[in-house]
Amino acid sequence: MTTTARPESTSMTTTPTAPTGAAPVVEARGLRMSYGSTDVLRGVDLEIRRGEIFALLGPNGAGKTTTVEILEGFRQRSAGEVRVLGADPARADDVWRGRIGLVLQSWRDHRRWQVAELLTHFATYYPAPRDPAELLDLVGLTSQARQRVERLSGGQRRRLDVALGIVGRPELLFLDEPTTGFDPEARRVFHDLVAHLARTEGVTILLTTHDLAEAERLADRIAMLVDGRIRVCGTPAELARRAAAQAEVRWTASDGSPRHERTGDPSRLVWDLHREAAGPIADLEVRRPTLEDTYLHMVHRQGTDDDAHRTGFPAGDGTGEAAA
Hints:
By secondary structure, this protein is an alpha/beta fold. β10 (247-252) and β11 form a beta hairpin. The chain has helices at 64-72, 94-97, 115-123, 132-138, 154-166, 184-199, 212-218, 236-244, 266-277, 291-301, 305-311, and strands at residues 26-35, 38-48, 53-57, 79-84, 100-103, 172-176, 204-208, 221-226, 229-234, 247-252, 258-263, 282-287. The longest helix has 16 residues, at 184-199. The protein has eleven helices and twelve strands. Mean pLDDT is 82; it is low at 1-20 and 303-324.
């Protein structure tokens, strides 16, 4: 069920980014979770800044849901330290819960409610909620105000989910697989809405998704959770630069044989090949790994430190930051 934090809330900070030196919105150090003899989280370190869109990627079973539920205060951790909005979620009160918003992957409740009626009802749980009419305009659902929820399209339903998640003015918003089943146009509209919340209103957003293109487009930073550990974390540009270090150059040699070589400096290798051949190189191709290539490589190899070294991606440095 998609839900928002219920009783009391505090007003949302409206500045889009935190001042230098401000405490992170989310901090986790050595986060561990075990179910019996099975270790699900093996020392997760995260740091998420105010006003940031942070994407958490990982295959099924990597521990994403467990991590997020611990941060939301819905699951007790086995070990480690966690601070979310300055408090330990395991001991947080209703005032703290009013400062977070949740948009879960799917829910089917309230199908017979009218859109505006449902949003107005949810607003009553908060002391200083957003105006429902203004919120409907923000998410592009004004014309559907009197429409029943069950008659909304998939994209409209997800926009309503976000409206319910932010009606209480949360400082931190959790988005779980927000655009599953969207067509390209609906996905773009939704992405614009999420970007507006972070850039204009200063909402910190933790996004979990399997859509790597979505993560690249939206996120300020991306972390990959593999086998219960953060294997790499950085901005999309940082990840792209590291991926470039493993570029593959393919060409056909003068004797007709196919050749290929991995290199951290593909431009230099291509230049050397041109000089050696004193002219054009047959079938020359330079392929730089994408975020998806890197993600799949880490998943298939279970992200050991040796694998991180081979891919050019260091393991997490203990802060959720990308290593230099």
